[in-house]
Amino acid sequence: MAELRELTASAGADIVGEVVQRRPKPDPATLIGSGKVEELKGAIASTSPDLVIFDHELSPSQQRNLERELDARILDRTQLILDIFARHARTREGQLQVELAQLQYLLPRLAGRGAQMSQLGGGIGTRGPGETQLETDRRKINRRIRQVEQQLENVRRIRGQQRRRRESAPIATVALVGYTNAGKSTLFNALTKAGVLESSRMFATLDPTLRQVILPSKREILLSDTVGFIRNLPHTLVSAFRATLEEVQKASLLLHVADVTSPTASEQQEQVEDVLRELESQDKPRVHVMNKVDLLPEKKRESLHDSDSVIHVSAAKGVGLKKLLEVIDSRITEDPVRRANLRVPQSEGKALALLDAKARVLSRKYRDGYVELDVQAAESVIRRVKQFVRG
After folding, report:
1. Residues paired with 234 in a beta bridge
2. What does the DSSP 8-state code read for residue 319?
3. CATH superfamily, with its number, for domain 171-331
4. 8 Å CB contact between 197 and 205
């Protein structure tokens, strides 16, 4: 219920009352059963809400029956999440993905949407003789779905071309994944100084963002911020956001960000794993980043231990980020780091500047017009100065 409250607040609504029910199985007609419907009627009469939100996906018939019985506008969990997504979509791609999910959700729910939907339509050659308004709307929606899918396919193709250009250079992509509001965007900003919107509201980030990060080895990676996952994430959203979530599928390493202060942290992590399985990314190497440690009691903080697969950080306070970058560095296999001895003429300013910028210089000696260097650098950097490498 706390999560539903948070979702409702993110959608911009005020809560006037709550009703909880436990049943062995859902009622096929109204989800909640006739007794609970009567109880809800009384609650609606006393508080006059604009809408009633169910923390469950309703079938088209359940939604129609509830609207008729309660004489109120009914919203289910999926519609609520779609509404939040629609509010937060900033880019054309994000807006297309939300529209596709909304249309796919609406299509089976057209029947019974008011009297205007069941009027006979006229106009030979437009809708056909005797075709109902409902069927016309269904045809329009199907046509719009095809148009949106085509536009998203174009987006996916352009994104694929951009990714192939990126992959031609040996730069790894690391994707942030995690439950909504786990602090992914705060961590993204802390590591990249990107200035992406940080918000305690759910699903503040919808559009993927890629930024460069320099690792301790001076190798570069691309860090990707992605949409947050949630319990019972509607399947229409996973399929609609597949273009965005391809960054997760193509990443070399996943940083699974979790809110260490959440009482349901372990369940939230399992929900993220479920979505990763749906994206066929469950076998990707990952580092579990336990965020918000600054909010834990001091005694609890002192008992935490990092490993190669679990790092404790506070993105907001900058705690543990150095250790996190070191672990990322150790887990990235693209463009491996190796050690080399070089003898570079002092006149080769360009090569020396490259090594200062892109390599860790372990020792430097000046001798007879040459600079003798012992360095650790990425394979791609060593190749660019290979003429100066000594045996």
Report:
1. none
2. B
3. P-loop containing nucleotide triphosphate hydrolases (3.40.50.300)
4. yes
